[in-house]
Every structure is written in C-alpha cells, then in structure tokens.
Design a protein that fits this description.
Keywords: Acyltransferase, Transferase. InterPro entries: Plipid/glycerol_acylTrfase (IPR002123). By secondary structure, the protein is an alpha/beta fold. The protein has one domain: Glycerol-3-phosphate (1)-acyltransferase. Helices cover about 45% and strands about 15% of the residues. A 7-stranded mixed beta sheet has the order 1-7-6-2-5-3-4, with helices on both faces. Strand 3, helix 5 and strand 4 form a beta-alpha-beta unit. The two termini are about 30 Å apart.
Length: about 240
C-alpha cells in the first residue's frame, strides 16, 4: 500500500497531461487504434515501474496462441497483477474487473483504454451478460485477463486460492484456448508495506486448447488450471528458497 501511494506521489507532476490524454483516447476509440491505446497503457505502466523501482521478468511468451483470441487465467495477488501481465503481453489484451474497484481515477482510464468489462459481483444477470460479451469478443480474436479467484487478500504472498468454476464459462462458450498465467511476488509491489525495489515474475504456461478440455466440466477445468499454476509456482519458489538457504 505504501508503495502504491509512493508511486502516485512520484508521478503527480505527470497527472495533468497523462490522465487527460488517457481519458481522451479511451473516450474516442474511433480515433485511436487498439494498438495505439494499448501502447499508451504500457507507456503509463512503464513510468510507474521506473518511479517505483519495479522490475517484471516475463517467461513463456512463446506459449501464447497465435492468430486467435484466448483467455488468460492468472493467480491473483494484488493491484499490480493486471499491470504486470500487460507489460509482459506484447499484443493488446483486455480484462474483466470488479466494477466497485474500477471507477477510481487512473484505474478507470486503464480499464477504458483496453475496453475492459466491469463485473458487478452480486448481480448474476449482469455477470451472465459479461460472460456472453467476453465470449463473443474472444471468438473475434480478442485476448482477455480474467482472475478466477475473484479477489485477493492483502499480502497473501505466493498463495493460490480456490478458482471459481464460473470464470471459465466464457472460454468454454468461445471454444477458446485457456492460458494459465503464474504471477510470482506480484503482491510485493502494492500489497505490502515494502518500499524498496521489487522484482516480480510473469509466466505464461502452455495453453489448454478446446480439444484438451471439451469433455471436462468447468469445475474440473478450474482444478486443472489451478494445479498447473501451483505446480509452476512451487517449482520456482522452491528453487528460490533452496538458493537462499
């Protein structure tokens, strides 16, 4: 939390021109291509990373499916998660986000620039509509970030909580690839009291294609994806712990 405030304060002098620029491009998608808006998002993230002494290492970009839409399912650790994925994801992607957390200044600009979906967690009908919209977008080639845990605890470290089976309905409806994404030490950026330099990792794992999961129920898919993420996380964090010892 302290680093979040620290980064905001370090970038206050940029706010008078960056936020209006982001808002303008977000409000006028007819004037700016998806690539141009995504480039602005990544530029803003880069500025935050530099001022906050944040480094993110990316692995597995070769696993990202080519020439089709897909849904990325990461573990969830904190406010930096989506930013870490976007700075690591070379082509435009969008996200589904809790509506209650999406309307603050700067966050709102990020969401609108990538034409993200705002999910009302307690509104079942609206949630179903979001699933349908994301499914259609993915069929048309868009890439999405969707956090299947649905939330996170403050300073939850590299712990993976249960995945919600409903999160996978949009990928199933679209018959699209499911890309498990492993976030390591992402919680250290904005969800601890740490103020020093931080290094995080983003791992894009090999995808599950429709042929791989078509005979599974969504709760079974959720378990498979969670197990793959936990296995990779244990492999990395276990190695790191052994080196520290």
């Amino acid at each position: 939390m302290f680093k979040f405030l620290y980064v905001i304060l370090r970038n206050l002098f940029r706010a008078p021109y960056m936020i209006p620029r982001m808002r303008y491009e977000a409000d006028h998608p007819e004037k700016f291509t998806e690539e141009e808006r995504y480039r602005l998002v990544r530029h803003a993230i880069t500025l935050m990373m530099r001022s906050g002494k944040i480094e993110t290492e990316c692995f597995g970009q070769e696993n990202l499916p080519k020439d089709q839409g897909y849904v990325m399912y990461p573990n969830h650790q904190g406010k930096y998660d989506a930013l870490g994925i976007m700075i690591s994801h070379p082509t435009p992607c969008s996200l589904v986000m809790d509506k209650a957390k999406s309307n603050t200044i700067l966050v709102s600009e990020f969401v609108d620039l990538v034409q993200g979906k705002r999910l009302e967690k307690d509104n079942v009908r609206q949630g179903m509509q979001i699933i349908l919209e994301v499914s259609e977008d993915v069929k048309n080639g868009m890439k999405y970030i969707l956090f299947p845990e649905g939330g996170y605890e403050f300073n939850n470290k590299n712990k993976v909580c249960d995945f919600k089976a409903g999160s996978f309905k949009c990928a199933v409806r679209a018959k699209a690839p499911i890309v498990p994404v492993v976030l390591i030490d992402s919680y250290k950026v904005f969800n601890t009291f740490h103020l020093g330099s931080v290094k995080t990792q983003v791992h894009f794992l090999p995808p599950l294609y429709y042929e791989d999961y078509k005979d599974l129920k969504t709760n079974q898919i959720a378990e498979v994806v969670k197990e793959r993420i936990e296995q990779k996380m244990n492999e990395i964090t276990g190695s790191a712990a052994a080196q520290d010892a």
